[in-house]
From TrEMBL:
Gene name tied to this protein: ND3
Keyword Metal-binding: no
Described purpose of this protein according to its UniProt entry: Core subunit of the mitochondrial membrane respiratory chain NADH dehydrogenase (Complex I) which catalyzes electron transfer from NADH through the respiratory chain, using ubiquinone as an electron acceptor. Essential for the catalytic activity of complex I.
Keyword NAD: yes
Listed GO MF terms: NADH dehydrogenase (ubiquinone) activity
Record keywords, A-Z: Electron transport, Membrane, Mitochondrion, NAD, Respiratory chain, Translocase, Transmembrane, Transmembrane helix, Transport, Ubiquinone
GO cellular component, one term: NADH dehydrogenase complex
Top EC class for this record: translocase
Subcellular location: Mitochondrion membrane
Protein name: NADH-ubiquinone oxidoreductase chain 3
Pfam families: Oxidored_q4
Transmembrane segments: 54-76, 88-108
Amino acid sequence: MNLIMSSVATTALISLILALIAFWLPSLNPDNEKLSPYECGFDPLGSARLPFSLRFFLVAILFLLFDLEIALLLPLPWGNQLLTPLSTLLWATIILILLTLGLIYEWFQGGLEWAE
């Protein structure tokens, strides 16, 4: 049995054991205190379901997008040691162009302007 099959079998066995243990463990009964929102030990002052600003969500998504760009481009210096460094630079250029076009689109749509 090769290494990959043994790793898959071990992972499947551990997952099955953990699922069976979770199935047999007693379920906890939630009470009113456990279901209430927590605000630093105090009773909540208002509703915990207040509307969330879409601007914060957009900024968070844009941050994750450009953070992913950095994570994809970090191993780029080691790409020159591959057999085809030109293809590595080509893929990096394509990623940068796509993300730059997305940023320009968001800018022209007004998604980056905070105040209206």
